Amino acid sequence: MGLENVKHIILVLSGKGGVGKSSITTQLALTLSLQGRSVGVLDVDLTGPNIPRFFGIEAKKVTQAAGGLVPVVVHEGRDKTIGIANGSTKKRRDNLTFGSLSCMSLGFILSSRSSAVIWRGPKKTAMVRQFLTSTLWPANLDYLLIDTPPGTSDEHISLLETLLKEAMPGQLAGAVVVTTPQAISTSDVKKELNFCVKTNVKVLGIVENMSGFVCPHCRECTNVFSKGGGEVMAREFGKPFLGSVPIDPAFVMLIEEGKLPTYPEGTMVEGVDVGGAGLADVSEAQDPDNYVPDDGLLVEKYTSCSLYPIFDGIVKRLVLDVEGEAS
């Protein structure tokens, strides 16, 4: 019970806290959805369950059903024949198709965002196992992304023990490992790579997060934390380097306030011009099919973010690796 509806499982790991695993998990999920895959996100960072906040669904709660827990829906899928995902008659990017997205997190169960989780190892272990075995994911879920806490703690051990017991052969596709460019980060993340080696978890690739800063007032992307540490580490361990992801305040505003990302004309991020006229400047009268209203879905607004083209490339590589092997 719990994993039989899932085709592929990907862990998001890091040996260090504060490197942005939840941010990376969120954007991997949104991009997989935009590439037509149905996605589930399981948050097993029990002391810092931030996934509900990233998806803007903190106020929602999980429900109990026969056989387990029903995850919270972020958005339903939309295809060309259905058109509108939420049943609305108002036009909102009708030409954009995407797969469904749902989440499970302890954050949905806690009484408030500030509630502290003060649990010993056995209780954490039991909670991770319950999430893995009792969450009723939608049928034929293409990808389950598991956002993990930093390090190699009780949650990681419980997670892998349960997956070894419950998952079908080949169902665990592997792990995406997240680092930041600084040496202090890569030194900690190397321990996570060694953890993967010892537990026979395939490393699908390494993502270097916080590699640069996209200025909201000018056209520059500045490497405030240096750049290249993750790529050097990937070469050292013989693992794929998936890409560098800068800090984008517009993405932060999208998550925190729901604001559609906008950039000065000529803003270049990883060789892509994300500034000037774009979806953020399209009015409903000019192009009703591409117009995104203020209450549009997060997945719709994300396509205007400078980070979306980067993750589009990252996810295409992951899908080719995972589904190429499965076929």
Automatic annotation (TrEMBL):
**Cleavable signal peptide:** none
Q: Which UniProt keywords apply?
A: 4Fe-4S, ATP-binding, Cytoplasm, Hydrolase, Iron, Iron-sulfur, Metal-binding, Nucleotide-binding
Q: Which GO terms describe its molecular function?
A: 4 iron, 4 sulfur cluster binding; ATP binding; ATP-dependent FeS chaperone activity; hydrolase activity; metal ion binding
Q: Where does [4Fe-4S] cluster bind?
A: C215, C218
Keyword Iron-sulfur appears in the UniProt entry: yes
Residues holding ATP: G15, K16, G17, G18, V19, G20, K21, S22
The compartments listed are: Cytoplasm
**CDD domains of this UniProt entry?**
Mrp_NBP35 (cd02037)
What's a GO cellular component annotated to this UniProt protein? cytosol
> Which InterPro entries does the entry link to?
Mrp/NBP35_ATP-bd, NUBP2/Cfd1_eukaryotes, P-loop_NTPase, YlxH/NBP35
One Gene Ontology BP term is:
iron-sulfur cluster assembly
Q: What role is this protein assigned?
A: Component of the cytosolic iron-sulfur (Fe/S) protein assembly (CIA) machinery. Required for maturation of extramitochondrial Fe-S proteins. The NBP35-CFD1 heterotetramer forms a Fe-S scaffold complex, mediating the de novo assembly of an Fe-S cluster and its transfer to target apoproteins.
Protein known as: P-loop containing nucleoside triphosphate hydrolase protein
Biological source species: Tothia fuscella
Taxon lineage:
Eukaryota, Fungi, Dikarya, Ascomycota, Pezizomycotina
